[in-house]
Design a protein that fits this description.
3 domains, 19 helices, 54% helix
Length: 424
């Protein structure tokens, strides 16, 4: 009680955590029964009276309700938020963490699930007689309850407030991470045409980043920045994720390549060697980046996309030209936009709009306008694009620090969506 009062006066995270810990210890002490008293209950009363158990497990601003109740046949049932606890945990297995590139969340969940199953089995073996339980089983029951509470508390690493968040299976996740504003101190001038194009491209990059889970963002970011020193800093799950992504890239590129097939095959061979368990689990192992660098850093279909869309790009520029009076200040050259830049965690591949056929010659003006508008998201001023890209080199560390542990542990990456505001 004293710790709780102190936490109310000074509600720091440390004080609240200490109050919760001491409160849990007090609850355990209340349930604890001395062996001597237990034997007296067993001899004279036929066991310890059982009362339905209601416990609360604190998460990150939310809580879980754990219940142990009596069935008509004297057996016990374990519920979480008024549903069978094992059914609840099974639904998490098919959620976002199951499809994540990084395995931290699934490993955590599988461990929790396995340990909870073992404790539930202990509880379900207990049968009451006239509402009473032998004192040794009473002690065993309390131990199982405490173990379940401790296991469920491990979900705090995901930063969720409820199990429903973990059960989601739509992508991207519906829950946004905490917002961070990244400012770009552009030096291109104050002309309205420059400001307008700068804001447009920042908006496109912001939309692209915010459409990613932290899990996908970190995969893209690691694939871009991967080199020997970065690789050695990654844990086993991060290494496996980025190597599988690079293998996918190399395999796809190898099927389309002409003169570089052997180069891509060499990259595949080196990646597969790095994925061998003895290498993947060796903290000191690092692959040869002479071969792998072919599919790291700037990678994708930008040149191919540009070549397929030369005519449309010209039309887009002509359309943009009508919107700006000081055209020459900013549109000296067109750039293909990644939205977001690869350095900022964007994808290397630009959507293959070439699969969407242009309107026919008989189509009305609105159809062509709509078509060109769809291309505008991927075409813009090269000057502005280069300026944003160069400033990302300064700003990326701020974003990385925001979405990495301890702010967002690896276990949380699949269930949170990026949330950035990009501004001048």
């Amino acid at each position: 009680q004293e710790a709780i009062e102190e936490a109310r006066l000074e509600a720091t995270s440390e004080a609240v955590a200490e109050a919760r810990r001491e409160d849990d210890q007090a609850e355990q002490a209340e349930r604890r029964m001395t062996p001597e008293l237990g034997r007296l209950f067993d001899i004279f009363e036929g066991g310890v009276p059982f009362e339905n158990v209601q416990e609360s497990i604190n998460l990150n601003g939310g809580s879980l309700a754990l219940s142990i109740t009596t069935n008509t046949d004297g057996s016990l049932s374990t519920s979480l938020d008024n549903r069978n606890i094992l059914d609840q945990l099974a639904e998490i297995t098919t959620g976002l963490i199951a499809r994540a590139h990084h395995g931290h969340g699934l490993i955590l969940h599988d461990s929790i699930f396995e340990n909870v199953v073992a404790q539930v089995e202990i509880i379900e073996r207990i049968n009451l007689t006239d509402g009473r339980i032998p004192s040794p089983l009473h002690t065993e029951l309390n131990g199982a309850i405490q173990s379940i509470k401790e296991e469920l508390g491990r979900y705090r690493a995901t930063k969720v407030q409820s199990l429903e968040h973990l059960k989601e299976n739509s992508y991207p996740p519906s829950h946004q991470s905490q917002n961070i504003e990244i400012r770009f101190n552009q030096q291109l001038g104050t002309s309205p045409v420059i400001i307008s194009e700068y804001d447009r491209q920042l908006g496109l990059q912001q939309t692209g980043i915010n459409g990613l889970s932290l899990d996908q963002w970190w995969l893209n970011r690691n694939a871009y920045r991967l080199e020997d020193s970065v690789f050695l800093d990654l844990d086993t799950n991060e290494r496996r994720a980025v190597l599988n992504e690079l293998k996918r890239r190399a395999t796809t590129a190898e099927t389309k390549a002409r003169g570089k097939k052997q180069n891509y095959q060499n990259a595949i061979n080196e990646i597969e060697n790095a994925l061998l368990p003895e290498n993947l689990n060796d903290p000191a192992f690092s692959p040869s980046f002479t071969d792998i660098s072919l599919v790291t850093n700037r990678f994708g279909n930008e040149s191919n996309w540009r070549n397929k869309r030369r005519t449309e790009i010209t039309a887009v520029l002509a359309d943009l030209r009508t919107e700006f009076t000081d055209w020459d200040l900013v549109f000296e050259k067109a750039a293909v936009l990644h939205n977001a830049d690869q350095i900022a965690g964007g994808f290397g591949e630009i959507p293959d709009i070439s699969r969407t056929a242009p309107p026919s010659s008989e189509a009305d003006e609105q159809a062509w306008k709509d078509y060109l508008d769809s291309l505008k998201s991927y075409v813009g001023s090269s000057n502005v694009n280069s300026s944003i890209g160069s400033l990302w080199r300064i700003n990326i560390e701020q974003l990385e620090n925001h979405v990495k542990p301890p702010n967002y542990p690896e276990e949380s990456w699949p269930v949170w969506k990026m949330n950035v505001t990009l501004s001048r």
